[in-house]
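Appendix B, record 7
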Amino acid sequence: MEIDDIPQDDSKIFQGQRKVIYATRNGKFEAGTTTGWQAEEFATEQAVDELNQLTEQALQAVKNGEKSVIYYLMYKNRYDLQTLAQATGFWQWQIKRHFRPDVFAKLSGKQLDKYSVAFGTNVLK
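Structure tokens (predicted):
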């Protein structure tokens, strides 16, 4: 894409901010800015809607006693299993176990601290 062709659609997801992207000018890459474009806005809105649905489903699973609060907080804080494992230092299989309410109830303070740091909350203590 040529630098002069970068879309400037004033996307509401950018909230008045600009995003740096790279485009070409005279055959060489150069940094340019955009206020967004419609296709990106549409895709982002769909992704956010899906994440919101997953978060709501996770909350219901916690309320129904099917999952621990870790499951809900993972979605609420926009983690997936892999990134939560990276943030906490737990293996993915351990986190899946911690989703079980009976296993969660037995977690140590040190284990809960790792989740608290990742989620930025003291709710788990």
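Remarks on this record: DSSP finds six helices and two strands in the chain. Residues 98 and 107 are 8 Å apart (CA to CA).
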